[in-house]
Amino acid sequence: MGLQDLVFSDEGRALLLRRSAADFLHGCVRTQALPGGWVRPWRVTERQLRVLGSCMAWHPGLYRRMARSTAGVCLRFRTDANEMVLALRPDVWNGKCADPVLGLVVDGQHLGPVEAQAVPDGISGVDGSAGCSLASLRLDAADDAPGPGMVPLPGFGRVRDVTVFLPYVVGCAVRELWCDGQTVEAVPPAPVLAVVGDSISQGCYVHDPSRSWTALLAQELGMDLWNLSIDGQVFQPEFAADFASLEPPAMAVVALGTNYRFERCGATLVRRDVRGLLGLMAQTWPEVPTYVWTPPAHDEAAYPTHRQSCYAEVLRIIRAAASVHPQQHVVEGTRLLGPADLGLLDDADHPAEAGHQQMARRMAVLVRAGQLGGQQLRQRADAALDAAPPCALGVRESLERHVGQLLYADRDDVLVRLPRGRRAFFGTQAPQAAAVLGALCAGPDVREVLACGRGMGQAARDALGMDSVEPVVLAFWRRRAKVKVSAQLRRQIRPLGAEHQQEVVRHVGPAQRVDAAWARELLASGGVLGAFEKDELVGFVGELPDGSIGMLQVFAGHKTRGWAAALVAAKANEFVAKGQHPWIVAYPYQKALVKRLRELGFELSPATEQCVLCRGGSWGAGADRADDGDADQVGVSVKHDESEEANA
């Protein structure tokens, strides 16, 4: 006999622990007592409900109905029960009531969705239960059983953290919660994440309400969710007028704008509404960090934007309105779900479950990146890199030499911004790596990414959509002693000056490995070493913006004389003299170079551990792929975009 069967008999219910479901509500701003012991949770205030149904609203009928839904509202508790039954009464619209769907999360694991079953005649012996629905919640897992073929005894199981999300598209009232355990304890309130959005944030087209990006983000950040999202909603300043009557949240997200695609609208009125809502929120919550989204990507071919819509100007309007408030931070929606992610949509605009998951993960990365101070961020990076394999040495060196700026770090991931549109990344878990890279490296300004860690190349490619991906070998020198180099060749190696700029660019330019500006800077600093035979320049080596040795060239007619090894050794010794660890990136097909590096005493991280991704396919093609036997071409830098240099 199941627990739900016990609920239908007086004797069975006497064996169960009964609690009022209203005692465990989270995510609502008020509750309404109804006849028969029912309690209705509301996620909007009475004033907001009137605003949504007023003549000022675009679609008052739809808004009133959606405002009654329990999107984001949940029950949270700790219990030793194995099974529970929740009694709820969903709203009836047009004489119909669909079976409501709930989301179930136990100890952070999603076990839903759970469909509640209608009980039209109610439960015999329970007054006021007519028209209710019952949701059976199974909390235990297979490994909780004491042995094969056995089930855990009620009340003797482990205590679990349970969250039950109420329906996202309809409203409901709640009443009893029956269980087979000995205790059900309320979970204290957590800091609140408030989300003002539309149908995407409400969770439409996601069958499980615990799987919307809002619910996932709140779970990721350890926060309670207050979901103020309304299907069809646009920027409506009056909706924010009642925020002053409520306790300020710990953080807020405004995710509006998509609905301007579907109707005729003018930029003047939209600008007024956007400024009005964001201005009221800034005035009411001056200390609340608020993330203001521009709309995510949509499928224009599947559903074209209304010809008389001002949607093309909406992104600029949102950015401008949020920029005047210091506590409001603009988030480009296409960094969360971009044009390359249209396969994650359920229709032209609404993400499917995988799309919601990606948006939540990437938004969590952006929040954490903004919350961590420089010292705390560096401590996390050092902890992650201390435990990292050798492939992460280049990432560490870029930080140690202050070549790169630390953008993000947690226990598994480190992301560094380098000059001229480059990034260096180390990670261990593909899903989290994709979230970090997608949130912080998307966009045409990032031209090249060195991804370190097994499987990180595929994660980076999936997240960034870059069209060139090349496995590379990373060679590094961790000794204090200098690299041995032929004394005869060493005497013929010296720094090059500006007079060699044209020749340097001529040799490396066709491969698009450095641009004239970088070559000029490097030559001015003495960063390029040249090899000479009777005062004739026969080769050179430099360094790339990430601090690695690169630009290695030995001219035709002077190969097979040991210049490649001598130049690399001489350049490496410059770093060793500064107490730094030289490193160099090579292609696996440059077998002679890899052999020379090994002979010089460099340690090697195999090509399965790191790769370089490039936008535009501007390197790694044609003659540069050939291994000429003297290994005298190396460096995986693309032609750099100078536009980012001032910010690097």
In short:
Helices cover 28% and strands 24% of the residues. With 648 residues, the chain is of the alpha+beta class. The strands form 7 sheets. Strands 2, 5, 7, 8, 9, 12 and 14 form a 7-stranded antiparallel sheet that branches.
Structural notes for this entry:
The protein is an alpha+beta fold. The protein has 19 helices and 33 strands. Strands 2, 5, 7, 8, 9, 12 and 14 form a seven-stranded antiparallel beta sheet that branches. Strands 20-21-22-23-32-24 form a six-stranded mixed beta sheet, with helices on both faces. A five-stranded antiparallel beta sheet has the order 1-13-6-11-10. Strand 28 (536-543) and strand 29 (549-554) form a beta hairpin. Helix 18 (563-577) packs across helix 19. The longest helix is centred in the middle third of the chain and has 19 residues, at 353-371. The chain is elongated and about 105 Å long. The model is unreliable at 617-648 (pLDDT under 50).
Descriptors:
disordered C terminus, alpha+beta, 19 helices, 648 residues
Topology:
Layout: H1 3-7, H2 10-14, E1 17-20, E2 25-26, E3 30-33, E4 39-42, H3 46-52, H4 60-67, E5 74-79, E6 83-90, E7 101-106, E8 109-110, E9 114-115, E10 117-119, E11 132-138, E12 160-165, E13 172-179, E14 184-186, E15 192-197, H5 199-202, H6 213-221, E16 224-227, E17 251-255, H7 267-284, E18 290-293, H8 311-323, E19 328-331, H9 333-336, H10 353-371, H11 374-386, H12 393-400, E20 405-409, E21 413-418, E22 422-427, H13 430-441, E23 448-452, H14 456-464, E24 468-471, E25 473-476, H15 487-490, E26 493-495, H16 501-508, H17 516-524, E27 529-533, E28 536-543, E29 549-554, H18 563-577, E30 583-586, H19 591-600, E31 603-605, E32 610-614, E33 633-634
Parallel strand pairs: 15-16, 15-17, 17-18, 18-19, 22-23
Antiparallel strand pairs: 1-13, 2-5, 3-4, 5-12, 5-14, 6-11, 6-13, 7-8, 7-9, 7-12, 10-11, 20-21, 21-22, 23-32, 24-32, 25-30, 25-31, 26-27, 27-28, 28-29, 29-33
